[in-house]
């Protein structure tokens, strides 16, 4: 029995030993295969680790992940040790090789398991981490649309390492958010940055709310944090090693990103992109570039509306109506979108389209789906105005026709008369305050600049909003029907109890004999060209009227009821060529401050008792030519503003003006004088004898010397600089010392038809330290603007705009050496009909033009190069860094803009080229002019251009607008 047991035990041992031997043999045989598997698994592990390390900048590593990475390093060392043993296997016995193969199998399993653990941790971690980009559902922009061009423009700034902060600025509804969303989603932007952080800054924002939104976007747990500083430190640490883009939408006020996020502009190529309707906010945020977003062009607006409405719009009876619908949207994408949603439902029903158009024109928000939302968005701009003063001023502008030109000086006078301008003891203070209010309204787009200088306008969308606000006001009743082709005065129920009535630009020919308008404050009847008379009792009840505008009518007399206007402050009778009589006693107009009787036949003496007037505008023809001329003007000794128009074509005008000059010097309270001096001697008389022409005088002047010429007022006048002193020297000869003296105080100078000088330097250019705008026209003896040989210091340091027209002998803008600092602020150059001009930028000049933004060259037939290589041989690539627009028209000899494509043109946005048939090469390549948005020209010219490569041609082709 014992022997059997012993035998069985021995058998089991033999079996086990045999099985073990077999395993060793198998391991030995699989050594090579196990080695390859281990190397493959080790390679996969290394790839997983490298992938994690590659993206480690956006990972917030947990302790587990750090342990995994450390363990990976240990495993890799162990694999290397096995690999080293494998390479020395020739000297090993069979059992050692079997052990090595076994170790490789076990390590292979360990590596595989460790790699799977890492992948799982990575997936878990990725779910807990913020995405590099959060895509936003948004409107896809049409290729080459104006909005798409803005996106492309901003992309260029984002790609520019010198630019750190970019702002997109524009009025409400111009699709700023849509542009930002398209940039957020853009593939190029995603490649530029490790992370894009989008934050909407609501009107009710706070530092804490904004900080919480950023923390949430970064998926940071901040429970227990009590201070903004602590949270900012955490955000800063999280973003420290990342290249990020902060996108702030709808910024209402300055956001201190350093305080909120603990970041500054020195941080690793990271950038800030913000959108705001307030350009002041953009400046407060210290942005490097502002991209101004305008309403869509009519063509782009039509394309957008057409795309959204779909096939019904192609119906031949609907398309004309649809185009009128688009016009009512004023190019605002927000409004176009909402209106298109409503009109899409009307299908091809012409009657419904016509009804919808009429409702839209009436702003019937109840029937236009989404209109209330638009109104609410627009009204935020109004409600956000700082005070009642700004709100009243904005609403008053709605009395004028939509898109019409409103003269700024006149508008401010009406505001003052109505009592909207606060804290102004005199007209100068009122104008200063009025311009402050005006600029605020322009900044928030409630009013817009006009192409006509010193004018503003209100677009139809904001005007309808303003009228809606006025109609809902319990304290105001209005009758506003300007430019509506009215032939009859409105019905009694419309004007009864009205506070303000605007019926300007109509065909009204008769007025009611009497009206009951005790509460009327403003009555605007100007430019009713068929209105010939005013009933005697018409003004009887208007004892509270403050503004009365009758200018541009055909009235011949003022009724005696005018004397009932005891509260009247502003009376406009200008451009009433038949007005000659006034039967009323004007002495009752005790509060009248502004009187304008230019281009009428009424005699100033009939208003002679109004010695309390503050602002008087007359023509020479309003003056008596007989015995009383010496006391006509000087009796108004409280005048603060005086403007005297001169018709220099009328015989004897100069003799009258000579006498007036002697009266004007007696007015000691003037702060503004607009006057034409027949000769230089008369200007000299004023300068020598007027107490206003003293040092530190607050007088603002607009002087013409010689023949009065109202041309070029657009160039010399400026809405942004209402207090600019303007001097126009017309058809003069040589240089008089008094001109040099006046030029020392002049901000805008027009030299027109002058003889006897060959350059502007003759007028003492070293002393023109206050010159901002300069116009030179029809000066046939001028050969250069600045003679550098005659000056040893910087000149025209503050000149911003230079306009040169019809100067046939002009050879250069600058001749001779250029002192550093000269032309340092020059932003715009216009050259037109300079027939002998060959060089624009002489040697050393272009280096000073660091602020030049606009260059226009037209009908200069000798120009061959815009930038002559012979004058600018050492030109650096960064030349003209701010140039935005380049317009070249009718230059038959022009062959090139610059010798090659070496210039960067970093700010260039638009080019217009026409009738330049010899220009065959453009100075662009694939990498310069990155912000170029449009090239306007002729199809035939574009087809004849020569290209270095097809890639440049294709890039620029997409920017073309060709006739």
What this model shows, in words?
This protein is an alpha/beta fold. The protein is about 35% helix and about 15% strand. The chain is built from 27 helices and 32 strands. It has a 20-stranded parallel sheet. It has a five-stranded parallel sheet with strand order 2-3-4-1-5, sandwiched between helices. Strands 6-8-7 form a three-stranded antiparallel sheet. α23 links the parallel β19 and β20. α5 crosses α6. The radius of gyration is 39 Å and the shape is globular. The termini are far apart.
Number of helices: 27
Strand count, sense and barrel status of the largest sheet are:
20 strands, parallel
Question: How many strand units?
Answer: 32
Fraction of residues in helix: 25-40%
| SS-based class | alpha/beta
Instruction: Determine the N-to-C terminus distance.
Output: 117 Å
DSSP strand (E) fraction? 5-15%
Give the mean pLDDT.
86
Radius of gyration from CA coordinates: 39 Å
Question: Spans of 5+ residues with little confidence (pLDDT < 50)?
Answer: 6-12
Q: What would the principal axes of the Cα set say about the shape?
A: globular
């Amino acid at each position: 029995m014992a022997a059997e047991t012993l035998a069985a035990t021995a058998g089991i041992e033999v079996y086990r030993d045999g099985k073990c031997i077999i395993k060793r043999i198998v391991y030995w045989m699989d050594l090579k295969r196990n080695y390859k598997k281990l190397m493959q698994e080790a390679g996969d592990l290394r790839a997983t680790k490298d992938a994690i390390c590659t993206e480690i900048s956006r990972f917030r590593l947990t302790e587990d992940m750090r342990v995994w990475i450390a363990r990976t390093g240990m495993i890799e060392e162990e694999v290397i040790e096995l690999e080293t043993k494998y390479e020395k296997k020739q000297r090993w016995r069979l059992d050692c090789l079997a052990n090595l193969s076994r170790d490789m199998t076990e390590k292979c399993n360990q590596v595989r398991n460790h790699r799977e653990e890492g992948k799982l941790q990575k997936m878990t971690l990725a779910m807990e981490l913020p995405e590099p980009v959060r895509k936003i559902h948004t409107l896809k922009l049409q290729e080459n649309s104006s909005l798409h061009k803005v996106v492309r423009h901003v992309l260029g700034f984002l790609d520019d390492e010198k630019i750190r902060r970019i702002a997109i600025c524009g009025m409400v509804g111009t699709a700023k958010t849509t542009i930002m969303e398209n940039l957020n989603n853009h593939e190029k932007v995603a490649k530029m940055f490790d992370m894009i952080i989008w934050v909407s800054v609501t009107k009710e924002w706070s530092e804490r709310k904004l900080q919480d939104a950023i923390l949430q976007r970064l998926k940071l747990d901040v429970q227990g944090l009590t201070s903004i500083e602590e949270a900012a430190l955490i955000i800063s640490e999280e973003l420290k090693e990342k290249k990020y883009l902060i996108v702030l939408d709808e910024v209402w006020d300055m956001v201190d990103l350093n305080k909120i996020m603990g970041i500054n502009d020195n941080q690793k190529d990271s950038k800030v992109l913000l959108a705001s309707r307030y350009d002041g906010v953009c400046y407060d945020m210290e942005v490097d570039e502002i991209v101004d977003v305008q309403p869509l062009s009519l063509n782009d607006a039509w394309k957008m509306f057409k795309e959204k409405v779909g096939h019904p719009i192609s119906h031949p009876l609907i398309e004309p109506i649809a185009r009128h619908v688009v016009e009512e949207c004023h190019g605002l994408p927000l409004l176009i979108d909402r209106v298109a949603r409503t009109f899409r439902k009307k299908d091809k029903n012409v009657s419904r389209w016509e009804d919808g158009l009429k409702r839209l024109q009436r702003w019937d928000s109840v029937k236009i789906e989404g209109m209330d939302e638009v109104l609410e968005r627009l009204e935020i701009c109004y409600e956000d105005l700082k005070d009642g003063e700004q709100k009243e001023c904005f609403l008053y502008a709605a009395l004028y026709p939509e898109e019409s030109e409103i003269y700024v000086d006149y508008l401010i006078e009406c505001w003052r008369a109505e009592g909207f301008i606060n804290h102004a003891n005199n007209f100068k203070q009122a104008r200063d305050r009025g311009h402050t209010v005006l600029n605020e309204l322009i900044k928030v787009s409630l009013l817009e600049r006009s192409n006509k200088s010193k004018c503003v306008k209100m677009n139809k969308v904001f005007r309808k909003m303003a009228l809606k606000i006025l109609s809902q006001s319990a304290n105001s009743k209005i009758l506003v029907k300007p430019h509506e082709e009215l032939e009859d005065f409105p019905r009694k129920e419309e004007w009864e109890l009205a506070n303000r009535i605007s019926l300007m630009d109509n065909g009204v020919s008769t007025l009611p004999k009497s009206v009951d308008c005790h509460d009327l404050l403003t009555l605007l009847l100007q430019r009713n060209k068929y209105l010939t008379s005013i009933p005697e009792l018409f003004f009887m009840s208007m004892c509270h009227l403050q503004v009365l505008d009758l200018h541009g009518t055909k009235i011949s007399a003022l009724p005696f009821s005018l004397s009932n206007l005891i509260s009247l402050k502003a009376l406009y009778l200008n451009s009433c060529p038949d007005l000659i009589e006034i039967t009323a006693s004007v002495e009752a107009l005790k509060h009248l401050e502004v009187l304008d009787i230019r281009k009428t036949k009424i005699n100033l003496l009939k208003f002679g008792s109004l010695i309390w007037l503050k602002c008087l505008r007359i023509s020479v023809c309003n003056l008596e030519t007989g015995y009383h001329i010496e006391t006509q003007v000087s009796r108004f000794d409280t005048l603060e503003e005086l403007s005297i128009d001169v018709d220099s074509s009328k015989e004897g005008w100069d003799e009258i003006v000579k006498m007036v000059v002697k009266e004007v010097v007696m007015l000691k309270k003037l702060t503004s004088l607009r006057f034409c001096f027949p000769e230089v001697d008369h200007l000299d008389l004023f300068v020598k004898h007027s107490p206003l022409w003293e040092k530190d005088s607050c007088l603002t002047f607009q002087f013409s010397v010689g023949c009065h010429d109202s041309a070029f007022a657009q160039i010399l006048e400026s809405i942004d600089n209402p207090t600019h002193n303007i001097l126009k020297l017309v058809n003069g000869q040589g240089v008089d010392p008094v001109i040099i003296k006046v030029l020392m105080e002049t901000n805008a100078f027009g030299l027109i038809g002058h003889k006897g000088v060959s350059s502007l330097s003759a007028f003492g250019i070293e002393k023109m330290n206050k010159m901002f705008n300069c116009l030179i026209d029809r000066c046939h003896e001028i050969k250069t603007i600045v003679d550098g040989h005659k000056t040893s210091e910087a000149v025209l340091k503050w000149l911003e705009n230079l306009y040169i027209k019809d100067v046939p002998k002009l050879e250069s803008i600058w001749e001779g050496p250029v002192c550093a600092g000269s032309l340092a602020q020059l932003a715009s150059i216009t050259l037109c009909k300079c027939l002998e001009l060959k060089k624009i930028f002489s040697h050393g000049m272009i280096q000073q033009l660091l602020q030049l933004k606009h260059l226009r060259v037209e009908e200069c037939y000798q120009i061959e190069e815009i930038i002559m290589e012979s004058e600018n041989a050492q030109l650096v690539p960064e030349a003209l860094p701010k140039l935005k627009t380049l317009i070249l028209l009718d230059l038959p000899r022009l062959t090139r803009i610059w010798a090659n494509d070496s210039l960067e043109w970093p700010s260039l946005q638009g080019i217009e080229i026409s009738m330049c048939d010899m220009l065959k090469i453009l100075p662009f390549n694939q990498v310069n002019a990155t912000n170029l948005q449009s090239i306007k020209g002729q199809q035939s010219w574009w087809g004849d251009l020569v290209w270095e490569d097809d890639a440049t041609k294709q890039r620029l082709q997409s920017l073309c607008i060709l006739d």
